[in-house]
Amino acid sequence: MKYGYARVSTVSQDLESQLAALENQGCDVIYSEKFTGTKADRPKFKEVLSKLEEGDTLVVTKLDRFARSTVDAINTVKELFSRGVKVHVLNMGLVEDTPTGRLILTIMSGFAEFERDMIVERTQEGKAIAKQREDFREGRPNKYSKKQIQHALELLNDHSYKQVEDITGISKSTLIRAKKKLQAPSK
């Protein structure tokens, strides 16, 4: 059997291109999940690993879709090899249980881990620079202007939260947070 595994790190990312690539490879069963690769507990990945038997092939689009680090990739592939399972990484080819195959796996895993570490480092650097700005705010930017929020809060004098939400499109939870913020004693 050919088992495919697709993963993206966040709910907002799209799995479609990975799923299409796995379908094109003729995978009999495809497991997919939206789960960060930094966590060891990826339920669908654990499930596909438990299904693999001797003679089966695990197909992934890229090495970093199933491995969190070089060590993780090497250990996972070694464990699969010991069970007689083949590993096909679409952007690398079939990973063979030979000295050359293991060397290529190690090098490619190292590059994947390096790439991930560089992304994290650049993100942290960007955030550190952004924090130096006076107007920096952690988290998502406000969807509504202060004027829109103020108008919605004024509507609460004569309307329910539900009515104000229907009129303005601003959610009840956003209105409650804004109201609390206004009522909080200033520092």
TrEMBL record:
- What organism is this sequence from? Bacillus cabrialesii subsp. tritici
Q: Which family does it belong to?
A: Belongs to the site-specific recombinase resolvase family.
Q: Which UniProt key words apply to this protein?
A: DNA integration, DNA recombination, DNA-binding
Q: What is the lineage of its organism?
A: Bacteria, Bacillati, Bacillota, Bacilli, Bacillales
The segment(s) forming the Resolvase/invertase-type recombinase catalytic domain are 1-134
The active site consists of 9
**PROSITE patterns this protein is in?**
RECOMBINASES_1, RECOMBINASES_3
This protein is called what?
Recombinase family protein
Q: Which InterPro entries match?
A: Cry35Ab1_HTH, Homeodomain-like_sf, Recombinase_CS, Resolv_N, Resolvase-like_N_sf, SSR_resolvase
